[in-house]
Write a structure and sequence with these properties.
The protein has 2 domains: 140 residues, NAD(P)-binding Rossmann-like Domain (Rossmann fold, 3-Layer(aba) Sandwich); 176 residues, Dihydrodipicolinate Reductase, domain 2 (2-Layer Sandwich), CATH 3.30.360.10. It is built from 9 helices and 15 strands. The strands form 2 sheets. It has a 9-stranded mixed β-sheet. It has a 6-stranded parallel β-sheet with strand order 3-2-1-4-5-6, sandwiched between helices. β11 and β12 form a beta hairpin. α4 runs antiparallel to α9, α5 runs parallel beside α6 and α6 crosses α9. InterPro entries: Gfo/Idh/MocA-like_OxRdtase_N (IPR000683), Gfo/Idh/MocA_Oxidoreductases (IPR051450), GFO_IDH_MocA-like_dom (IPR055170), NAD(P)-bd_dom_sf (IPR036291). One of its GO terms (molecular function) is nucleotide binding.
């Protein structure tokens, strides 16, 4: 089989990176690009800039990458499904749970590979973390805490910080802990004059009893991307900006300080920062999508984020917004 013929729709901040990575991925050939707003980043590199998804489909595709604004995900994805084209849609899968379900059903009913672009699952720190949790290295997992903070990104115009950023934390938390959300309680704030929320704090619980906490905003003057998993034997800290994974072990050193010795908790132990292979997450994500398309929908071993998983994450995202709007805990 020759290289997959790939189309890309959406040539903005994310589209330009997808174009670069697709061109560098063996077994994939970028044959068509589309964006009704033009090509301000010079992504086309000699290809004609097509006006819409219909023109993209007419180029003859094996698969497509959808990097348009969230509000257009459903329309574009449904057109691709109708044409029998496998697709990966940037997160979130759609602008609403109902739309996401329609997209997921359109691909599954036709036996097409459909994926959602939650690239954090391909981050080396989180992959190493998940592998160690699966091996039981932390013992029982108690808590997952995430912090995702930084300045406002000029690329965003149609959604708030919950659907743009917190969606990453919700997906990676459920994946890392291998469990679904059962409840969420959240508060949001509007501090920068935009219509959509720019800060959110949320706490919740997973089906396996793990408690979770998320702090996400666009108003911090430094960038932070941290996931902390605390458990029976200590805590892992995954920094997805640097791709580093550090383990803080529970200590076993006895204390002569009576007040400390009487406290039945944990103490500071050894600290280890692991040496792990660091590949660009987007490159691994595209390779996984390529392999899934070649193998076909339902093939064992596919490591894509499925559209059903994308819908499940969007259900939690909408629960976060409902909780904040109604000042209550939402059960899922």
């Amino acid at each position: 089989m020759g290289a997959l013929r790939i189309g890309l729709i959406g040539l903005g901040s994310m589209g330009r990176h997808h174009a670069r990575v697709i061109r560098a991925t063996p077994g994939m050939e970028l044959v068509a690009v589309a964006d009704p707003g033009g090509d301000r980043f010079g992504v086309a590199d000699g290809l004609p800039v097509l006006p819409d998804v219909r023109a993209l489909i007419d180029a003859g595709l094996d698969a497509a990458m959808v990097a348009v604004p969230t509000v257009h995900h459903e329309e574009v994805a449904l057109a691709l499904a109708e044409a029998g084209v496998a697709a990966m849609v940037e997160k979130p899968i759609a602008h609403s749970v109902e739309a996401g379900r329609r997209v997921a059903e359109a691909f599954s009913s036709r036996g097409l590979v459909g994926a959602v672009g939650y690239v954090e699952r391909c981050n080396p720190a989180l992959r190493a973390l998940r592998a160690r949790l699966d091996a039981g290295d932390l013992g029982e997992v108690y808590q997952v805490l995430t912090r995702r903070q930084g300045p406002f990104p000029a690329r965003i115009s149609d959604v708030g910080v919950v659907k743009d950023l917190a969606t990453h934390d919700i997906d990676l938390t459920a994946w890392v802990a291998d469990s679904r959300y059962t409840s969420i309680s959240a508060h949001v704030a509007h501090r920068s004059g935009r219509d959509n929320e720019d800060m959110v704090v949320g706490v919740g619980r997973l089906a396996n009893g793990v408690i979770v906490s998320h702090v996400v905003n666009w108003l911090t003057p430094f960038k932070e991307r941290v996931t902390i998993v605390t458990g029976e034997k200590g805590a892992y800290v995954a920094d997805t900006l640097t791709g580093d994974l550090t383990f803080y072990a529970n200590g076993t050193v006895t204390s002569a300080w009576d007040q400390v010795a009487a406290f039945r908790g944990v103490s500071e132990g050894d600290v280890v920062r692991y040496a792990i292979e660091k590949r660009e997450p987007l490159a691994l994500e595209q390779e996984r999508f390529r392999d899934a398309v070649v193998a076909g929908a339902g093939a064992p071993g596919n490591e894509i984020v499925t559209m059903d998983e994308g819908v499940a994450t969007l259900e939690v995202v909408e629960a976060v917004l409902a909780s904040a709007a109604e000042n209550r805990t939402v059960d899922l």
